[in-house]
Amino acid sequence: MALVCFNAALEKQAGCPSLTVTAQNYRALLEELTLRLPQLTQEVLTPLALVIDGEIVQEPFLADFSADAELHFIEKIAAG
């Protein structure tokens, strides 16, 4: 199962530092996380960037990942 690692802010909301999920794409990941952790709404998660196995994903809704992937949600880096 894929491992979702939460940053400090999300860890406070989730109540745990990480969680294993069965999802293998971004949409399923959002559904599973919001079902299991209702305090992590899509409004909280979708503004964040998704990192899959150390690589920032530019278009997360198109992203698939393996069952043994390590996933992180991070703040998006803004250029200016």
SSE blueprint:
Layout: E1 2-5, H1 8-14, E2 18-21, H2 26-36, H3 42-45, E3 49-52, E4 55-57, E5 70-74
Parallel strand pairs: 1-5
Antiparallel strand pairs: 1-2, 3-4, 3-5
Structure description:
- It is a single chain.
- With 80 residues, the protein is an alpha+beta fold.
- The protein has one domain (2-74): Roll (Ubiquitin-like (UB roll)).
- Helix content is 28%, strand content 25%.
- A five-stranded mixed beta sheet has the order 2-1-5-3-4, with helices on one face.
- Strand 3 and strand 4 (55-57) form a beta hairpin.
Strand tally, please? 5
Distance between the termini: 38 Å
Instruction: Work out the helicity level.
Output: 25-40%
Number of helical regions: 3
Strand content: 25-35%
Q: In which order are the strands of the major sheet placed?
A: 2-1-5-3-4
Shape: globular
CATH superfamily: Beta-grasp domain
The CATH architecture name reads Roll
Structural class of the helix and strand makeup? alpha+beta
Radius of gyration: 12 Å
In N-to-C order, the SSE pattern is EHEHHEEE
Mean pLDDT: 94
Q: Please give the CATH class.
A: Alpha Beta
Largest sheet: 5 strands, mixed
* Tally of domains: 1
CATH topology: Ubiquitin-like (UB roll)
Q: Provide the low-confidence segments as ranges.
A: none
Kindly list the characteristics that best describe this protein.
Ubiquitin-like (UB roll); 5 strands; 28% helix; 5-stranded mixed sheet; alpha+beta; 80 residues
How would you sum up this structure in a few lines?
The longest helix has 11 residues, at 26-36. This protein has helices at 8-14, 26-36, 42-45; strands at 2-5, 18-21, 49-52, 55-57, 70-74.
